[in-house]
Amino acid sequence: MSVTFYHTRLGKILRSGAACVLALGLLSCSEKAPEQKAAQTAPAAKSASNAALTGLKGAPARVRRLTPEQYANTLHYVFGDDISAGQPFAPLARTDGLLASGAASISMTVGELQQLQRNASSVAVQIIDKGNAETRLAPRRDYLIPCKPANVAAADDACAAKFVKQTGRLLYRHPLSEATISKFVADAHRGASDLKDFYAGIGVVIEGMLIDPNVLLVADTTEPDPQRPGQKRLDSYALASRLSFFLWDAAPDDALLQAAEKGELQTPKGRARAIEMMMASPRLEAGVRAFFDDMFGFEDFAITTKDATVYPMITGQTMIDAREQTLRTIVDLLVTQKGDYRDLYTTRHTFMSPYLAPIYQVRPTMGWVPFDFPADSPRVGLLSQVSFLALHSHPARSSATKRGKALRELLLCQPVPPPPPNVDFSAVENPDARLKTARARLEVHRTNPVCAGCHKITDPMGLALENFDGAGRYRDTEKGEKVDISGSLDGTNFNTVEGLGKALHDHPALPSCLVKRMYSYGTGGPLSTSDNSAVTALTGAFAQDGYRVPDLMRMIASSDAFTEVVDLPPPPARTAGLTPTGVAVK
Amino acid sequence: MKLSRTSLGTVLTLALAAACGAPASADDTTHTALQNRTIGYALTGTHWAVYQTKDGKEECPQGVNDMGPREIFNKMFPDLGPVEKTQLARESATWYPMDSEEKFPFHTGQSKKGIGLNLDGKVGPNDLTSPDGTPGIDNQLGRALSCVRFFRGPDGIGFHFTDVYVRQNDYNRAIIELTNVDSLTNDDDVDVAIYRGMDALMMDATGAKVVPGGLERVDVKFGKKFESHLKGKIVNGVLTTTPKDVTWPFAWFGGVPGEQKFKDFRFSMKLTEEGANGLAAGYTDVDNWYYSLAKGRSTHHQSYGTMSAPGLYQAMHRLADGYPDKNGQMTAISWALQLPMTQVFIEHPQNTKKAPGVVALSGPEAAH
Fold this sequence. Notes:
Chain A has helices at 2-15, 19-30, 68-79, 99-102, 110-127, 140-144, 157-172, 178-195, 198-210, 213-216, 236-247, 254-261, 268-280, 284-295, 316-336, 357-360, 386-391, 400-411, 426-429, 438-445, 449-462, 497-505, 509-523, 532-544, 549-558, 560-563; strands at 59-60, 63-65, 217-219, 222-224, 232-234, 349-352, 369-372, 477-478, 481-482, 487-489, 492-494, 564-566.
């Protein structure tokens, strides 16, 4: 199966060079596929409840690659949770604070393409699996292929067509054209005939779909906007994909595609109905988790290690649970309780697992359970959770600077410059033994004026977390000396973790940063000047609404800016051959 | 040695000096390991307490036993022969060692030193002296095992794997719970319960140590035979308990269920908030102990440790020092186990909560 296909579709891709993959995706922006010409003509009326957000300019059309989670979530929706999606992609580069924005600017090597092909082959084998009588595993082919071939050892075009039409629509996120269906049926026929196995032919088709750039790249295909003559908007299927990847972190489901097919998404009522359906779905949790996992830089959990001799309690499972604890806290407060986003930084309510309990020095209980830290506990808000404390520390010691930097960059969208290349770290890396606390060491470090500038914007709030070591475990003292956790954040002074959480809670940049990140995440690329008006309006609406994140998601998804497409700004003088980040090629 | 059931004159010995972690630093939030006058510990390893010196010359002046099953078989049947007169005959001697006299030498410990507790409160002529000079130590099993490679550390396979199996298999999960504890330093009246736990130990990042603060649920699927209740006291951080007959979960091999029926079982353990370390000691019926070993460790395991099972059986009877039968023949032998333990929180069946699984977006499971 693999060999046959290798010499057809993937072979062509590989021979044409890696850059072609991206180019294929980009080109698809400007060419509306014939199968996407469903009814999409309803004008976009303005919602009274969304009046402040009407008329906002959107973003340029983009192409972005699926994230590994989106790829896996999509496969799980289409084929079931027991399908192993594997590791098809190389890591994305964090861009403008988000991996999702990095997905709009990628390159692929030939090696990565081969990895994609191997992964696709593995998934295909799982889907056409024969089952196992000994372990009583039912053959997946019996329930994932919607028909039985007349002869399992031969091609069956009618059955193959049924599978291609049904599955292709979900993977490509729009109905396939007759020509595309015919091509895949021909592939299935050839594979079945060559290998004398109908299912092997289906496997060839699946493998082909899963390496097709039109599946792997999400393109903002556009159409003329009847409300704005001469301007463009996302077409129904691109809008369905944008909604679905934003709210569910997965490709559209059957109901959303049906709404797109009927043109309902281009009407205010239809779009609102679809958004409400998605917001009410349990799959919203996956969308919320994916966004915050990205915004908080939790991909670093995969590369964060702790010195086992210094922090023996931090195991691989501890780190997995630390990430999960924060995500559960977020989902509970923001989605279940419909709480104020800012309260994430002052809440004492979280969830506890047996592996985290020893770190927090609390009594464990089986499984994940809701947990409230008492009012006199130093554990307040996400900043005092192990995820933040351990992730933003050194392998063998805490780091007020890393924590302060993370607070600035991740939560307030305030970039902190990297240290200059000639910086002298000796005061903190190889300190005078008399300097027992991080505060004392950093004070010496800051006497170097080259270092002082940046440390002044990171350390005062990072030092407020020095009651927690590099593993996130509480401590009163460091090397026998009492830890002083007084600090400040942009003019607000405090001497407790609770004070830091409150200062962050009330910081004006906290909600505006979330809006920037979420808008950028939803629209599929880094912000540009054309997004300023949308972000400003959304930030105001978010505040008026009491900082409710699901409402913010609803506002973004409902806004004109979410679907309207602006022209590219005039390109700056650039080197021949380079393409601006994440924008479609006209 | 005459048996006494009443002695509480337990003696702190070598093992108590072993590394017990420093007391947990008083830190986070609301918690110390001692909560509601209760603290729990889980067994994290075990060794039969055998006194041994670096070169072994003090306790085994004739050397360690070098006649295991293979060597003895070759000696007995150099020309082989019918299976019933060779292999089966030797197997029979292993399973019924009381029916024949073992002719091959089996060396036992000759040192007057030993690790264990003074079970009867007396100092008898056959008693041992602990390395710290405490006389009256009763551990004749330790003498019987002293010159058997299988039981000598650090690389005797019995020494090594009996210890490892405690951490790697859940069956050997002996746990103890101290209640009515006012202080881990001095308390003249505490209750000590022994249970079998059901949860895996939480290993640290090095993979070598157990993290304090884990959870152990009491497992009652074997009924209450592993549950025992003892009275105890804590003096200068050392827990001692009154003697009581106890059934102790003990898998000689892997996680294969087994047990030791101990007589006059008692603890002498140094306590901290992070762990407990010390000894359990008592008597055990010689035949019961021998058959638990023979069933748990097959001939090839015995061969790796050059251990002659019939030789050990007869040595145990020679050294037996407790529970005389009507003829005055001792039927039980004193023993000691070295027991490192780590602090855990113990959950009883009636308090066991159903794991909530994933957090629901709404509904009762999402409530506090």
